[in-house]
Design brief:
- One of its GO terms (cellular component) is cytoplasm.
- This is Endoribonuclease YbeY.
- This protein has 155 residues and is α/β, with parallel strands linked by helices.
- The chain has a single domain, classed as Metalloproteases ("zincins"), catalytic domain (Collagenase (Catalytic Domain)).
- Helix content is 51%, strand content 15%.
- It contains 5 helices and 4 strands; from the N terminus they run βαβαββααα.
- It has a 4-stranded mixed sheet with strand order 1-2-4-3, with helices on both faces.
- Strand 1, helix 1 and strand 2 form a beta-alpha-beta unit.
């Protein structure tokens, strides 16, 4: 699996943790090992420009997802085909304010946003209540599973 993390922001982050989480999430969603994912971290001005250009909304946002090959999760019998999953763009400064409000670390918020972005790349959405329930349940399960795998890795 090719997961490229490109930090174009001035914020220092644990890029290896973002890669490990992404690998965990893609494995959990049964994505082919030859799928490609890019994660880009940008400052608030760059995120605002993307937010205006692609969503027509002012101000920076926390995460944007740009799917490429419209890959969908595999199932127990079959992996998704290989291909370009797409790009997840994160804004660490927005994540930092959200983390403070939520009472956890900025890195925890970036892990959550990365998971959220990956699920959007895989076609999940949260516009409707049933979609939101499914997506946020998957997001929670992935983050819990990742945290457990990190504990095992460090032990």
């Amino acid at each position: 699996m090719s997961i490229e993390v490109n930090n174009e922001s001035t914020y220092e982050i644990d890029e290896a943790a973002l890669q490990r989480l992404s690998t965990y999430a893609l494995d959990a969603m049964r994505i082919h090992a030859d799928a490609d994912l890019a994660i880009v971290l940008v400052d608030e001005a760059a995120m605002e420009a993307l937010h205006v250009q692609w969503m027509g909304e002012p101000g920076p946002t926390d995460v944007l997802s740009f799917p490429m090959d419209e890959l969908r999760p595999g199932n127990d019998d079959q992996l998704t085909p290989a291909g370009l999953l797409g790009d997840v763009v994160l804004c660490p400064q927005v994540a930092e304010s959200q983390a403070e409000a939520a009472g956890h670390t900025t890195m925890d918020e970036l892990l959550l946003l990365t998971t959220h972005g990956i699920l959007h790349l895989l076609g999940f959405d949260h516009a409707e209540p049933d979609e939101e329930k499914e997506m946020f349940s998957l997001q929670r399960d992935i983050l819990i599973g990742y945290a457990l795998s990190e504990r095992s890795r460090k032990a």
